[in-house]
Amino acid sequence: MTRRTRFLLLPALLLALPVAHAAVSDPTLAQAQAAMDRLFDEAIADRPASDSSRLVAEAFRPRLQAVSGCLPVTDAGPPSVDCIVTAQDGGDAVHRLLRFSQVDGTWALLHTQQQRRRPAPVPPTARVQVLLREGFAARLAREQDAGTRADLTLAMNSAEVLDVRDCAVGDDAPVIECTVRAAAGSERGEQTMAFAWRDGQWVNAPQVNAPQP
Fold first, then answer.
1. Per-residue pLDDT reduced to its tens digit, 112-157
2. In terms of DSSP H, where are the helices of 60-169?
3. What is the CA radius of gyration of the chain?
4. CA-to-CA distance for 108 and 10, rounded, in angstroms?
């Protein structure tokens, strides 16, 4: 997800923030690849079975490299999880959110059109509130400047999340990136934060190519 972060009245503090279980076991990388292979094979089943067409199809078969951040789905029929998968696209790693469902004891993928419409999960505002203050506390532990430490202490103790929106899978890392609007005292600002789902809860994820104050 490509974003140009817009900062309002908390640039020095917000710029320095890092951006950022289930009822069933999460799919392993091998199980996720098997589910992807079945979906891929179904998609090309109607194509001519010539040697050349099979070679072309195999060249475009998705090869998964990692499965991470599997979030349990509460509103699905069969037991399901939404996971971020990482695949290789040329020389680049591509991250996508896919839903895996248990079908007859085997992990399966929904059809492609359903996957494309899948919205990214949005961390609850109350949890983002905790993570926002954790970000300020982490910077406070490293900061030496007395004035900046005072500002960080104020933000850590009083920062309030006003809004969490525009969540999407990150371009550069298997994380969920959201625009977070916050207030500290009379000041307000917003920036992109990145989150990961680990051990049954949302946590701050390190920002890739973080801007420097």
1. 666 666 789 999 999 999 999 998 888 888 888 888 888 888 888 8
2. 112-116, 125-142, 146-158
3. 21
4. 45
The span from the CA of 102 to the CA of 77, in Å, is: 10
Give the closest residue to 173 by CA, choosing from 31, 66, 90, 99: 66
Cβ neighbours around 83 below 10 Å, total: 22
Q: Measured between alpha carbons, how far is 187 from 189 in angstroms, rounded to an integer?
A: 7
Starting at the edge strand that comes first in sequence, how are the strands of the sheet with 92-103 ordered? 64-72, 80-89, 92-103, 106-109
Distance CA 120, CA 178 (A): 10
**Predicted structure pTM score:** 0.77
Residue written as tokens 């098997």? 34
**Segment 2-52, tens digit of pLDDT:** 443 333 333 333 333 444 333 568 999 999 999 999 888 887 776 666 656
Return the closest-CA partner of residue 135 out of 109, 110, 155, 108. 155
How many C-beta neighbours within 10 Å does residue 187 have? 18
Q: Pick from 200, 33, 29, 25: which is nearest to 102 by CA?
A: 25
